[in-house]
Design brief:
Blueprint lengths: L1 E6 L4 H5 L1 H7 L6 E6 L5 E5 L4
Parallel strand pairs: 1-2
Antiparallel strand pairs: 2-3
Length: about 50
């Protein structure tokens, strides 16, 4: 499963932290993309175990 999240400066800490930890607990989780709402920037996280 791929999860794509658009973040703002106000939500980025939560999106990278607690929310990302919750997503990783999903058995079918494979990849997480964080896309900035304010600039051309994308972070990619891949579950090496999948």
């Amino acid at each position: 499963m791929l999860i794509v999240e658009v973040f703002s400066p106000l939500t980025v800490a939560y999106d990278r932290g607690d929310k990302f930890r919750k997503y990783r607990s999903i058995a079918s989780f494979c990849e997480y993309l964080l896309v900035s709402q304010t600039e051309p920037y994308i972070e990619q996280y891949h579950n090496a175990g999948s």
